[in-house]
Amino acid sequence: METQTLKQFVSALEEENLDDLRAASSKSFKDKALRLDESAEDLKRLRIPTEDLKVVEVEDESETSKLVNVKIGDATKTIVYRMVKEEGSRKWVVDDIIQKKRHDGNLKVAKKVTEQMDLYLSVREFMQKWSRKNREEIEAQMTVEFAGVMHELPNDYFDHLYEKVGDVESALERFRPEATLNEDTAVVRISRKKGRLDIGMKLVDDRWLVRDMAVESSRDTEYISSMIKSADALRSVAIFLKGYSAADKTTIKEVSEPNFYKNAIMPGELAAVSLPAAESLNNDSRMTIRGDRIDVNIPFNGEIASLTLKSIDRPEGQWKQHGYHVTDVSLIRSGATGENRKLSALLTSKARVDIFHEALVKRDLKTLTYSSSYDFNTRVWKNVDEEILAQLPIDLPKQGKFEIEDIVFNGSVTQVYTLFDEIPITYILREHSGELRIDDVQFPMAGKPNSVKTLLEVVIPAYQFAQTASKSSPTEEIASPKSLKDVQKLGQHYNQIISRMSNVCSFDFNYFVWKETDVVPEPFFNCSEHLETAITSVQPLNANGTEQMIQFGDEHWGAQVKVIQQQGSFRVDDVKLVAGKDVGYDLKIAARDQLNEKGRSLRSIYPLLHLQEGEAMAIETQLAKDFDNQNIEGGNVISSEKGGVVEEYQFSENTPSMNQAPAGNPFKEFAPAQPQSNPIQQVAGWDDFNHQSEKQPASSGIQNSLHEEDVFPDYVPPNKSTSPTTDAGNTRTADSTAAEFPEEFPPLETYPGN
User: Which residue stretches does the UniProt record annotate as biased composition, category Polar residues (predicted)?
Assistant: First the structure.
């Protein structure tokens, strides 16, 4: 009986007789493999052998099903027909065909004809419905996620994607599918005259549904690497443009990247800049998928509106959540200029410049920090406090008429040309991920760089040096220590000064001075007076600008400060104080000479000469412990040979200070050698320098604040090596993302004073 059925089935297969095939097949086989009129044609393409078949074995699975092994001619391979008894009759019909084929060269895999035919016919059904352009029928052949995204597309957007797929009828006429089939997923490739069509399928509840499509065309403009991604992105584009046309920021926020919305859309006046209407998508529009980003270009009023979208993570199956957010919008002018204008710059550049200009004139550090790019902050504003900010050589009047004359857009960089009290000022704004920040300010400055960022980066270390030097002299309370506690306080004071000086000074300066001592040399105590004068010039000393000379004051009073770039930032390398024409004094050399002459540690400069020998030894031991705890290096206080009673010791009012030798010293043989004159006087020109009576220029505002135990209570050292030994360089650039800056930039409308 089964042999007769097989012969009928094979004969019908050879003749592509669909009715006879159905007559010899089970209901399951007919539903999965023979449900379409083209099924016989598609079944024959599976190349099932039909000649010289011989039944070699019959294996009963049950009373109603059996496996029939059929040998093909003289070949050794066999085909297995699964046959079942038709319900209500004694007739046996074909329920499936199992072929063993090689996979990946060697592995033999059993493939069921019903699975292959069900897949091919599902693809054919989808293509037939696609060719009829019936959205409801098309979506019925898709997975829930694919259908849901496509369903929410406006008709114009659906038509745009539909046209990209192009002609499918010709592909149906010569249907030659090539499938890669896995357990519950498959990719079917359809060849066409103008490129191929890849259709991704997924088995859902025993039914093959389309989960994605890819279109490869001979024309790049019709290439789509993922239909579901394209549809998801276009859905967001439609919502964004519709919301923009209605000035509905709530709707725009749903499909916008948070930073882009906060920095461009939320503070912007949307009516000031026109974008295409949501219905403007047409055949000339272009879409490009690059990894997790999609660019959509829409022609509009002689320009191209370019929207950049980025995919976001969302739970699987949650297709109602928008899978793409708008991260940037640009208007690109057609023609030779091709000017690229960022929407964030168009909407907020004027407001950003107004806020920054006011903050610059008023020296508002908080607003300057909020308004500046990461690079501007890193190189300038992070390194100043209110005291230094007030002294910076920003030569702008406090009041005046401020006008914006022109704005030039060039991609992520925007130049705003302004006029302030007849001074032409150019503001450079840089955009990154929707965040527009001031990156530099440029205007003419006599004897100095025109770039505010370049100028301030060079001079700030000199102001930090001056600020630290102004606080370096110890207070009267601890300058002449009368107790162990006073000595400890003095050591702490010097340690703070030296620590900050080490951050500000160059490798050479540190090597020459600060790494060699735990006391501050006297030449630093009054040098800040020369650095209070205004900066008159800043000039490069080499071609690449890594060495600069800063001139404070004039030839009669002031200072020349040399700064060099090390580890990505400028450091003070040398300071020459000026107290008259041709009268100069090298601070670094003077400090080194004094250290060589007077000593390099607290215990060598403040010996306990009034103690009896045993008392000195006990105090020496206690001092050593305390100074070690303070990480302050020092030598022996005094040499002693005999013991004594330390409890009876009281510090004398006549304990010597740094500038006074002890009177009546009973241990003269142990006292450090005292020079006949101040060692600083041995430097040529010091007397003239120290007693200079010429009139000093007006001070720029450095004032010695009251000394506290902590000289710099609010000081946080910059990210620099305290004792630099290598030049690592700075890898930060102007393009560094603002998110890397530790301050969180608030929206424009929340800026102080706005």
Answer: 719-736
